[in-house]
Structure formats: structure tokens, C-alpha cells
Amino acid sequence: MNETDPLVTALAGLVVDIVWWLDSCGDDEVDPDSAVKMTENVAFVVKNLPAEQQQRLIQVLGELADAESDPNRRDQLWSFPFACGLLDAPFPGDGAA
Fold first, then answer.
1. Would you say 60 and 8 are in contact if contact means Cβ atoms under 8 Å apart?
2. Which residues of 22-61 are buried (b: 16+ CB within 10 A; e: fewer)?
3. C-alpha–C-alpha distance, residues 85 and 36, integer Å
4. d(Cα 59, Cα 81) in Å, to the nearest integer?
5. What is the pLDDT of residue 13?
6. Helix, strand, or coil (residue 17)
7. Burial, 66: exposed, middle or buried (Cβ in 10 Å; 0-12, 13-18, 19+)?
8. At what angle do helices 6-24 and 32-47 cross, to 10 degrees?
9. Confidence band, pLDDT 50/70/90 cuts, at residue 93
10. 56 has a pLDDT exceeding 80
11. Contact 40, 33 (CB under 8 A)
């Protein structure tokens, strides 16, 4: 298996964090329509990656989730591929991909 570029890992985690924030922030923080548009755009871009890159993203997110100590962030990392349409069902919460 190829070693993941640290930039890829960092950016994957940031994308999940931003989408999580957009999903959880209040209407007084971000316009709800803008949050939905941005979240849909992220899902569109991720869903249109080549299949190999989609699988690599899923793998990186699983690795991040396995290493995450915050249970809320771990859940977000696990559920992101499902929420974006990359998987038909969410990862199990125990880290088994």
C-alpha cells in the first residue's frame, strides 16, 4: 500500500470538519441556503472523483476515524462517505471498514 501524502490526510479531515460545521451551525452563523449549497457542492465534487480516488478518500477517512479520540468527530469521519453518496451504508462505528 502506498503511503498517504500528509496533505491528503489533512485536507480530507478539513473537508469533513467544514461540512460538519456547516451542518451544525446556527442560522445566525451561516445562511442556511448557503450552507446547503456548499455541502451539496462538496458532495458533488467528491462523488465525481474517479473511482480509485473515491476509494482512497474512503480509506483515508477510515484511518482518520480510527485514530480519532473525539467520538463526535470520529462519527463524522465514519459517516462522511455515506453522506456524500460514496457508500450505500455508513461505516460501522467500530472502525471496521
1. yes
2. beeeeeeeeeeeebeeebeebbeebeeeeeeebebbbebb
3. 15
4. 10
5. 96
6. helix
7. middle
8. 150
9. low
10. yes
11. no
- Using CA atoms, how far apart are residues 68 and 77, in angstroms rounded to an integer? 9
Length, in residues, of the chain: 97
User: Which amino acid, residue 70?
Assistant: D
In Å, what is the CA distance from 5 to each residue of 45, 47, 84, 95?
20, 21, 22, 21
Here the cell at position 54 is: 473515491
The single residue listed with the C-alpha cell 472523483 is: 49
21 φ/ψ angles, rounded to the nearest 5 degrees: -60, -45
CB atoms within 10 A of CB 13: 19
